Amino acid sequence: MHKFLLFLTSLLLFSCQNSPAPTPKEKNPIGDPWEVMVAELKLQDKPGLEGTEIARLKKGETVYFKEVKTDFKTKLKLEGDEYEEYWYEVEYDEKKGWVFGGGVLSKKDLENYSAIQERKSLIKIYGSETAKNIISFRNNYERASSALELGEAYLQAVIFRDSLEFYSRETGSGIFDGENELPGFLRQKSETGYRYFFNYKKWHARAAETKGDEDDTFFELYLKLYDVDSIEYDFPGWWLVEENGRKHHLLGSGMHLGLLESIDKQWGKNDLFKKELNDLKEFVLIDLMTSHETYWEDGPKIMAELQAIARGKFSFFYPEDLVGIQTKMAHFKNWKKQGLRINLRNGE
Question: DSSP 3-state helix, strand, coil percentages of the chain (rounded to 5)?
């Protein structure tokens, strides 16, 4: 039996050694196929604007890339759009020559043609840098599989949103409509252009799909801050806005206290959103220290919330923060002298 097993093992080894190696996939001998994407495109004897035309290519025709391109780019208009692209050596109908990169696409790229067309539109409207950021953000947002990756997408969105709004104010234009809006945003037209507001319900739902809970707990804070519909409008949830446009501050409702307590639970534990937690903490405290014209709640409720905040022993409080809260309490003890109006709930 032992000899039989030894024989069988030797036979198997011999068979493996003599099996033909897998044949590598051969490349197309004349090059990878590329498609002409414009109505007419010149095939030239050399790259650049000084090249001589040797053939006129039509939209939909195939050329074969010879894996050689120039080390320079040329600005050229094709069908009304300006491109800045390399020149590529190709073969067409047994002729070798050069074509401008703005007029061709590889067959592989054609599979994503709609995305490429959108990229061209974005570049045309916003410029290449902002277009690159928009596409990168979309991919990062949609493909994020961890809290870290979604956090990076959020920080990216915070940065480039300003450039979108600046462009919109300058031109009165925007590109995103309907289903093409930026994921995680709500776009609204204003008198000066378009505004892009974070939709924290979408961000929180996206966070639920990722590994890790730092993003879940962080976006829950913003669901509390914008508690009406989760949209980051100009007025956080501590404002009550009437139909006639008048607004009243909701200090005394417990929102400021609740937010500070929630931030404190994450403080020092959620390193991924450390800066954003600090910014949110500052946002809440600045609003607390600011004197507003009218307050919806009555004096006892306002004082109760301020006292609870002062006793909170929050880990992020500085001595000057506590002094500010105590100063605010002193103002409400003499609210009439301070020119404050309180208890608008009851029409006072």
Answer: 45, 20, 30
250-295 pLDDT, tens per residue? 999 999 999 999 999 999 998 999 999 999 999 999 999 999 999 9
For residues 243, 246, 251 and 252, what is the CA-based torsion angle, rounded to 10 degrees? Answer: -60
Does pLDDT of 12 surpass 90? no
Whole-structure pTM over 0.85, yes or no? no
**Amino acid (one-letter) located at 59:** K
Taken in order of first residue, the domains within the chain and their CATH numbers are: 32-108 (2.30.30.40), 112-211 (no CATH), 235-348 (no CATH)
Residues in the chain, overall count: 348
118 Cβ contact partners less than 8 Å away, ≥ 6 residues apart: 180
DSSP-derived secondary structure letter, 290: S
Strands 104-106 and 95-100: unpaired
Phi-psi domain of 67 (left: phi exceeds 0; alpha: psi -120 through 50; beta: other): left
> Which residues are within 8 A (CB) of 55 and not within 5 positions of it... i.e. 6 or more apart?
42, 43, 92, 93, 95, 97
